[in-house]
Specification:
Helix content is 60%, strand content 0%. The chain is mainly alpha-helical. 52% of the residues are buried. The structure holds magnesium ion (MG). It holds the Pfam family ADP_ribosyl_GH.
């Protein structure tokens, strides 16, 4: 099994970018009918701050093998593009860091010294979880370091820890029920509103309607970690084997839809693979990030398909366009 940290983190980053870029299309009122009919809106789909910051995390891990907070802060600040939809507090902070400010002081001073409890630390961290999938407890400690560069409030940190744990567990556990997935994630999250929300998500796993689940769990409309992360983990848990269904379920709930879809896409991609024909409509990732091309499919379904193809007497025919998610994966 040729799965290493870079492959997993790269898969997660592409999944995150796809969720972010496609999800953000549904802020455009004219695209609403596409969401209602679960069809793809016209491209190209541009990614937002979620992807830009996740690229910095990927780059730091690829270069250092761990989170160096000073390097990460410098990368966030150097690559901060005002037009990518940053929250005002984070945008202002990154501008000040770029002008020579100390990220430790600036992050701690936000919101009258409480620190930000926004979902910005959670939205970018799934590739880190995938990188450290062999050791979820270590992933969570690294996620905490990555969060504190901009978000020091305990709920924001807990949100990042939860998403990193989820990405690690999704990438490393072949057999996983939705309930077991959320139980394992919750073990890595400190007490507080995020963990309470994951507990509520656990109780709602039999609910089919994402709008109903989001009414209880939140959908990111308040852009807080605790209003965002529990719902995303509910959606990921409900669709652990199907990236496309997970996306549509998440997008249907509305709210901070680029971020909720970025989290779900990032959590699942190293497990499920990514629909290649969707990915082709996403704006290219920034050149400075040095992200490799997507690796061949390392998901369980992809490996099984590869094994079948290797043992088949006749060449495997390509699937028809627009086919099932597994067929998309096999095509890659
Ligand atoms: Mg965004």
């Amino acid at each position: 099994m040729s799965v290493d940290p870079l492959r997993r983190a790269t898969a997660a980053l592409y999944g995150l970018a796809l969720g972010d870029a496609l999800g953000s299309q549904f802020f455009v009122p004219a695209n609403r009918p596409y969401l209602d009919s679960r069809t793809l809106p016209p491209g190209p789909w541009q990614w937002t701050d979620d992807t830009e910051m996740a690229c910095s995390i990927h780059k730091v891990l690829a270069g250092h093998g761990r989170i160096d907070q000073d390097v990460l802060a410098s990368s966030f600040a150097a690559h901060h593009d005002f037009d990518r939809g940053y929250g005002p507090a984070t945008g202002r902070m990154l501008r000040l860091v770029r002008e020579g400010g100390d990220w430790r002081t600036l992050a701690a001073e936000l919101f009258d010294g409480n620190g930000s409890w926004g979902n910005g630390a959670a939205m970018r961290v799934a590739p880190l979880g995938a990188w450290f999938a062999d050791d979820p407890a270590h992933a969570v400690r690294q996620a905490e370091l990555s969060a504190r560069v901009t978000h020091t409030h305990p709920e924001a940190v807990a949100g990042a820890m939860a998403v990193a744990a989820a990405a690690a567990i999704a990438a490393s556990h072949a057999d996983l029920s939705p309930g077991r997935f959320l139980d394992l994630v919750a073990e890595h999250v400190p007490p507080g509103m995020v963990r309470d929300g994951i507990g509520e998500a656990r109780l709602l796993l039999t609910v089919h309607d994402p709008l109903l689940a989001a009414r209880v769990l939140g959908n990111g409309r308040n852009v807080t970690a605790h209003d965002t992360v529990p719902f995303t983990l509910w959606a990921a848990a409900r669709h652990l084997g199907d990236f496309e269904q997970a996306f549509w379920t998440t997008a249907t709930a509305g709210g901070d839809v680029d971020t909720t879809c970025a989290i779900v896409g990032g959590v699942l991609a190293a497990r499920t693979g990514i629909p290649g024909d969707w990915m082709r409509t996403v704006e290219a990732l920034p050149g400075w990030a040095g992200v490799p091309e997507p690796f061949p499919d390392d998901s369980a379904a992809g490996r099984a398909a590869a094994a079948r193809a290797a043992t088949a007497l006749a060449p495997v025919q390509g699937p028809p366009s627009g086919g099932h998610a597994a067929e998309h994966r096999r095509r890659k």
